[in-house]
Design a protein that fits this description.
- There is one protein chain.
- This protein has 13 helices and 17 strands.
- It has about 375 residues and is of the alpha/beta class.
């Protein structure tokens, strides 16, 4: 029996669709005017923008479709875009100012930052190496990138990036990320005495650590924040969906069917938390030996089956390559050190696919222009 979708379910999902210039979600701003749900799982939404030709229209539509489609039982999503009246626009600006005043900077991650959480069902599938190489590849494409190592117990990002620097705080007691390979990096591995130090923290402390990394780190203006999650569906994952409702997930698996069956739980957790899954990355997808033969050492087809099962695209297949391990051990990510190799090229193509699916937020938006126009009119009439 299909899940019954409710009006409240849809509104909860839409609270993850942000207007980045106004710093609030489209529900809070009153942009969601109609929600119609059919018995077969079709959802029709009436979304009012400040102007119908808003440059942000495609982003808001794409984000809305991803968020609502992530709900179990939704079969299709249709959006009816309309323009606000002058009175409605004034109301939106008033709400935005009130929200900015009452909810001043809930985290230090800018609302314009695209947040990509990299998750897996279990350890050993290469999730952290995928996170590091995605961050490097996206940075090489000209974007400002941050990398948060949220695998609090099993941190490995510092070694993979080749840094032993330590996190420090400024005069305002705000943590400054370490700049490595042009990426803003934060990890518990940059706090503990050495990488052999065991962190014996309970679940509450783990989520508190994540909260601190989001509230007390000066992330600055980033286009993308890549978050390397711990494997599974625990405290960190649940805290992330609460703290960063704009976060979206990519799921890493290997071709092995057993890994695929475990990874589907991560997708289920994401959807229960109203976090859309952008796509699936299949790591260790075949080994090409020197004489041209390819061997499926970890099986085949698991990534595609997972993508089809959860209704998202397979956005990358990364071949098994010893260079990935060498690059991780030496702090030279293969996406940059050997960009034209099989694995490096596949990782860079995957990064481009992520950008295509979750494009960066435009710096100049219609809501920003509307805000300046309203402010100018108010000053003139004062």
């Amino acid at each position: 029996m299909a899940d019954v979708i409710t009006h409240d379910d849809v509104l909860k999902a839409l609270r993850g669709v942000f207007d980045p210039e106004l710093g609030a979600d489209i529900v809070e701003l009153g942009m969601v005017q109609d929600v119609d749900i059919t018995p077969t799982g079709g959802v029709t939404l009436g979304i009012a923008l400040t102007i119908a030709e808003c440059p942000m229209r495609s982003q808001i539509e794409d984000d809305t479709v991803r968020k609502v489609s992530a709900l179990s039982g939704v079969t299709n999503v249709h959006i009816d875009i309309r323009a606000m009246t002058q009175e409605q626009r004034s109301g939106v600006m008033e709400r935005a100012r009130r929200t900015a005043r009452d909810n001043a900077e809930p985290t230090r991650v800018d609302p314009k930052t695209r947040v990509i959480a990299v998750g897996s069902g279990k350890g050993g599938v290469g999730k952290s190496s995928v996170s590091v190489n995605l961050a490097v590849a996206i940075s090489d494409l000209g974007y400002r990138v941050g990398l948060l190592d949220a695998d609090i117990w099993g941190f490995s990002i510092p070694r993979m990036l080749g840094t032993t620097e330590r996190l420090e705080a400024n005069d305002e007691k705000v943590i400054i990320p370490v700049d490595v390979h042009g990426i803003a990096v934060v990890s518990t591995g940059l706090i503990v005495e050495s990488e052999e130090t065991a962190l014996m923290w309970r679940g509450l402390m783990l989520s508190k650590a994540l909260e601190q990394f989001l509230h007390q780190v000066a992330w600055g203006e980033l286009d993308y924040l890549i978050i390397d999650l711990p494997p599974g569906t625990g405290d960190i994952q649940m805290a992330l969906s609460r703290l960063l409702p704009q976060a979206e997930m990519v799921v890493v698996t290997t071709p092995q069917k057993a890994a695929q069956k475990v990874a589907i739980r991560v997708a289920d957790m994401a959807r229960r938390s109203y976090m859309p899954v952008v796509g699936v990355i299949e790591n260790m997808a075949g080994f090409a030996c020197g004489h041209g033969e390819t061997y499926d050492l970890f099986g085949s087809g698991g990534g595609r089956e997972l993508a089809e099962a959860i209704g998202v695209p397979l956005i990358g297949q990364i071949p098994l390559d010893a260079g990935v391990v060498d690059g991780g051990d030496s702090g030279k990510p293969i996406a940059r050190s050997v960009p034209d190799g099989a694995a490096g090229a596949a990782l860079r193509a995957t990064a481009q696919r992520v950008i295509d699916l979750v494009p960066p937020v435009e710096d100049e938006t219609c809501t920003a222009r509307i805000a300046r126009l309203v402010d100018a009119l108010e000053i003139k009439s004062a």
